[in-house]
Design goal:
This protein is α/β, with parallel strands linked by helices. The chain has 39 helices and 30 strands. Helix 2 links the parallel strand 1 and strand 2.
């Protein structure tokens, strides 16, 4: 069977039945590995094996990137091989059919970086390559193990002195077959495997403890296991798959079936890596040449020896110049590169080499997880920082750049200005501070002192001892403070019950929370209370916060020295982003103050949860009214990973389930049972929990749906509009779909549910939209919406709220929510949790956030651009800006052109509202077009050429 046929085979049978086992022995390489893991196109469970020595900080980073990963600690025995073999029986028992094994080991080689990249790229290089490998496993039941042909090495040529251990393990394996005189192994032990094919080796590894052979050392055991994975396929009765072709060269890569032991290479690993280094250098040179960072003429004049050698200057820089600290252009600043990035790379690279390896290699790709270095690295003003922080509230991390230090300085300056403003204000409102405590005798005095030192003096502190087994209560009881009350629980009920007991006892108008491992700036309460009083209508607020690895030494002004910077994890602050808050927790309660009416209206802390309780509370308290964001550094969160912390002890899965019960009280898809897509069967879709928005807007709208095929999604789109909308008409403009879609649309027209325009060819998005606008009632506003969208309750009213409250509105857009796991999520929001739904209309890729605090009270955000997946166009906008430009933007690009015309030529605003939520099932029609008509797909999506599109449409019309 050919590769092209294999590529068309479904691999969905493996979805959710795969495990990835990653051994992370070198923490500095985790980010590189994570870059490859996010390319896997199907769902899988990630198992991480760590040595005991380096797990603390690394575990936190891994769980931030992959919250559902399982982390296991192993003693340093058999390096990554014995932990993997030990895990195999568990994977098999849990029903995982396929496993991918990867590691960060560099084997101590001189070319270790190249060796590591080669291992990862050859099996995880691109989503297409991964799909090719998975398709082979899905198609061929005899395929047991697949890895890089470049790293399939001869055991005879690279034989270690451990033949006795190899023979012993071979004899322990069940199954028949003799150990060959020579055989192959995958150097570095990175591969894909069928779990059942590895059972013989797993059984042998499981017997090692019984041998208790003290003569087997760490290196010998690891080397023996590595030599046996591929040859063990003889025992399993399986074949090998060798991935051939230059790395990152898909579609030239292919998988070749081999009967073990095959013909392994006798080339040394060093020789292979040197050959690949030359290829990679050429690729890097090409990237540098394209990027505009390299000035060839300047380089040759600055370094005449390069000109004398007659070598390509870009290739010289990649292979030699960067390591020799030569500059790629006259403006390149080595000191700034070192200052900003050195802590991320302890290997001692030169600035130029660091630039190539860690920055430039990601500059031209969409998979960059550090979008702050790419899209928002150059925030020169605080306003620019706010735009970036809208999408990543932990944007600033050490080592601190000059830009980051300016942001911190601004926040401290803002704090000082507010202190001067409110210093002499009356302190009439009582603030109740709730502090739960369990076995915190060693910390609680400092936390209490943080409250006692407040410049705002009208507070009460309620400490709730949750039946501690140490002397916490005694320590508190000895503190001489009239405003302090101690509540002692008779049984341990957890942090939520403790806080709820404190809330019941609280007398204050304002409520705040300080855990025993957090600290406040002395002016925290002064600023928070007075800012809330100065902005009537807001019921809650949060401040900027510094997050620390361990407890810093803070002066009374709340600042810290450069020496203390080594303890810093990040600065946490960004404008309120409701949609991203529903994806992951962004606000810590130590920076949060709220009015007691929120407690009375929505209840207290969720005592049915053990984790994410602050997230649950803030989601409820900010559902109908955003909180006030205060850009002043007033709070300190010490994230020291104490073993007593809930975030360390409690499981993630039930915590996420608790959040989802709040966000998804019922499934919208239940309303569309008659046309439910099988692909959506396990999904939950939900409306915003804020409920209907207050608006008097009664303007009639025409909803225009340009469409091609995707019948079931089109049906969902129209049914959802009829369920959740009023005062509208629908016009569907069909781009020459097949008989099934045509029949459905004719039935809608017969039932007077929609007007239908049938195009005689597929002329693209813009042409279809324009025909719909011309057909619409000239008094109506226009909504454009994709045929693969589903609207939710209140969507139209929320868009109407924008129309009613923004007089110079050009167009309004809702949330564009992608389904969990959608591959483009990291492109738009690299810090979002990918296996949760997320809105991408606020996008790092589009860089479209202009004013994140345009209307803080309503949550409106002003944008520079909005994709026309779903957009509200007031009639005034259409009258002034006209139709879409179908010639210069026949299929895509027309939305960008229109946004620029609306903003720059007509001085109108593009406004986003988080209260209108529309699901986007993303390119369903595009996929069908690609399969049904590749030439038209090419004309629309590659060329975007109006004349070519008309020509292809004419061919199709003639062909019919």
């Amino acid at each position: 069977m050919t590769n092209s046929v294999l590529q068309q085979k479904t691999i969905k049978q493996l979805d959710g039945q795969m495990a990835v086992v990653a051994h992370v022995d070198y923490p500095e390489h985790w980010e590189e590995m994570a870059e490859y893991l996010i390319k896997i196109p199907l769902s899988y469970h990630l198992f991480i094996s760590l040595s005991h020595a380096n797990h603390s900080d690394l575990s936190e980073q891994i769980l931030e990137d992959f919250p559902e990963a399982t982390i296991q600690l192993f003693p340093p025995q058999g390096r990554d091989l014995l932990p993997f073999a030990s895990l195999l029986p568990e994977l098999r028992a849990k029903g995982y059919k396929l496993v991918c094994k990867v590691s960060t080991l560099d084997e101590g080689l001189e070319q270790g970086d190249i060796f590591r990249q080669l291992r990862l790229r050859s099996i995880l290089g691109t989503p297409e390559l991964i799909s090719l490998i998975l398709n082979h496993f899905a198609e061929d039941p005899y395929l047991g193990l697949a890895g890089s042909s470049l790293l399939y090495k001869s055991n005879q040529a690279l034989r270690p002195e451990n033949r006795d251990i190899i023979n012993m393990l071979w004899q322990m394996m069940p199954g028949t077959g003799e150990l060959p005189g020579d055989w192959g192994f995958f150097a570095g032990s990175c591969f894909w495997a069928r779990t059942e094919a590895l059972e013989p080796l797993a059984e042998a590894a499981g017997k090692l403890d019984d041998k208790k052979d003290k003569k087997i050392n760490e290196s010998q055991l690891a080397n023996a296991l590595e030599r046996l994975f591929a040859v063990s396929m003889i025992k399993a009765g399986s074949v090998l798959g060798l991935v051939k072709g230059e790395i990152d060269a898909f579609p030239d890569q292919r998988l070749v079936r081999v009967i073990p032991p095959g013909q392994p290479s006798t080339e040394s690993i060093e020789q292979t890596c040197l050959r690949q280094k030359a290829l990679i250098a050429r690729r890097q040179a090409d990237l540098i040449h394209q990027s505009g960072y390299f000035n060839e003429s300047w380089y040759l004049s600055a370094y005449p020896d390069v000109a004398n050698e007659g070598m390509d200057p870009v290739l010289h820089y990649v292979m030699f110049g960067a390591e020799e600290a030569r500059l790629p252009n006259p403006l390149f600043d080595p000191e700034e590169i070192l200052k900003k990035h050195r802590a991320l790379d302890p290997a001692g690279l030169s600035p130029g080499a660091y630039f190539i390896r860690h920055l430039l290699n990601h500059q031209l790709t969409l998979r960059n997880r550090h979008y702050e270095q790419q899209n928002y690295d150059h925030f020169m003003t605080f306003e620019q920082y706010l735009r970036a922080a809208m999408l990543d509230s932990q944007l600033i991390r050490p080592p601190l750049s000059e830009q980051a230090r300016r942001v911190i300085a601004y926040m401290n300056h803002q704090k000082n200005c507010l202190v001067e403003k409110y210093r002499d204000y009356a302190q009439a409102d009582l603030v109740s501070v709730i502090m739960p405590a369990y076995n915190r005798a060693h910390l609680i005095e400092e936390a209490i002192a943080s409250v006692q030192n407040q410049s705002y003096q009208n507070w009460e502190l309620i400490v709730v001892d949750d039946n501690s087994t140490d002397n916490t209560a005694e320590v508190v009881a000895k503190i001489n403070e009239k405003r302090l009350r101690l509540i002692r629980r008779s049984e341990n009920g957890g942090q939520c019950r403790a806080r709820n007991d404190g809330l019941e006892a609280a007398k204050g108008q304002w409520l705040a929370y300080l855990d025993t491992d957090d600290l406040w700036d002395p002016d925290f309460l002064l600023i928070m209370v007075n800012e809330l009083q100065a902005n009537p209508g807001f019921k809650a607020a949060y401040s900027a916060q510094l997050v620390w690895k361990n407890r810093p030494t803070l002066d009374q002004a709340g600042g810290f020295s450069q020496e203390e910077e080594t303890k810093l994890r990040c600065l946490r602050f960004g404008p309120f982003n409701r949609s991203l808050l529903e994806n992951h927790n962004r606000i810590n309660t130590a920076s949060f103050v709220h009015h007691r009416s929120l407690y009375e209206q929505y209840g207290g802390w969720p005592d049915h949860l053990r984790r994410f309780v602050d997230w649950h509370l803030i989601l409820r308290y900010t559902a109908h009214l955003p909180p006030l964001s205060i850009p002043a550094l007033l709070s300190h969160n010490i994230d020291d990973r104490d073993e007593n912390r809930i975030t360390v002890k409690e499981d993630l899965i039930p915590a996420y389930e608790g959040i989802d019960r709040l966000l998804f009280p019922f499934n919208l898809l239940d309303s569309f049972a008659g046309s439910r897509q099988p692909a959506l069967a396990n999904l939950k879709l939900s409306a915003p929990i804020s409920g209907p928005r207050p608006t008097n807007n009664r303007r009639a709208v025409t909803i225009i749906i340009p469409g091609y095929e995707a019948l079931e999604y089109l049906r969902l789109c129209i049914e959802s509009i009829y369920h959740y909308s009023t005062n509208f008409e629908i016009i569907v403009v069909d781009n020459c779909s097949g008989p099934a879609v045509r029949s459905y649309l004719e039935s809608l027209e017969n039932e007077r549910k929609a007007e239908i325009i049938f195009n005689d060819g597929n002329y693209g998005f813009s042409y279809a939209v324009n025909r719909g606008i011309l057909k619409a009632n000239p008094e109506n506003d226009i909504i454009l919406i994709n045929n693969d969208a589903l609207v939710t309750p209140g969507w139209l009213e929320a868009l109407g709220e924008v129309v009613e409250n923004v007089p110079d509105l050009g167009l309004a857009v809702p949330r564009q929510v992608l389904l969990p796991g959608e591959k483009t999520i990291p492109v738009h929001l690299p810090k979002a949790i990918r296996n949760r739904e997320v809105d991408v209309n606020l996008s790092a890729h589009h860089k479209n956030v202009l004013n994140p605090v345009f209307d803080r009270f309503r949550g409106f955000v002003e944008l520079t651009f909005a994709p026309f997946f779903c957009v509200y166009l007031p009639r005034d906008t259409i009258n002034q800006a006209g139709l879409l430009d179908q010639k210069n933007g026949p299929h895509y690009r027309s939305d960008r052109l229109y946004c620029d015309v609306v903003r720059s030529f007509h001085n109108k605003r593009i406004i986003y509202t988080p209260h209108a939520k529309v699901y986007h099932f993303h390119q369903r029609a595009t996929r069908e077009l690609k399969e049904n008509n590749p030439e038209m797909y090419r004309a629309l999506f590659w060329m975007n050429d109006w004349e070519k599109i008309k020509s292809e449409a004419a061919k199709n019309l003639t062909g019919r």
